[in-house]
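hi! just following up on the protien thing from before. the input was this:
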Amino acid sequence: MILVVAGVAGSGKTTVGQQLARRLGWTFADGDSFHPAANVAKMRAGLPLTDADRKPWLAAITSWMDDIIATGQSAVLACSALKRSYRDELLSGRDDAVMVFLMINRDEDRTRMLGRRGHFFGAELLASQYATLELPEPDERRVYPVTTGDQPPGQLAAGIITRLGLRPG
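and the predicted 3d structure came back as:
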């Protein structure tokens, strides 16, 4: 199984995803590591990505997912998946994959992003995340919105494990 933890930058995807992977005993991968160097350079320069920029990134992620599924492993993947078309691409034909979409208040998100250090995606790009964002719709199968609120990452992870009926490893 692959559990994709999605959401805008600063929503806690990586932190919650790492907590989930640790508790479940699964492999963890961060979608940021699948970006080509040109995408990282563009974001580091404060320029938002386009759909064309995201194509090779999504292709690399789906290839990785297919490899994980083919080997019978389980993994947690942190990935923004901001648009429905991206979520569809990640989940389509992969019955062993589900997604939780972390919903965060914009003000809280901005506060988190302003305090973020050492990452190529800076707070100046946050507006582009919300401009691209298509919130999950009720008809999106295997996509579960999760409101972060003020819950600590460990509590969020525990709630996700319970909601999806997963067994900690």
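The longest strand covers residues 97-103.
The CA atoms of residues 144 and 164 lie 9 Å apart.
cheers
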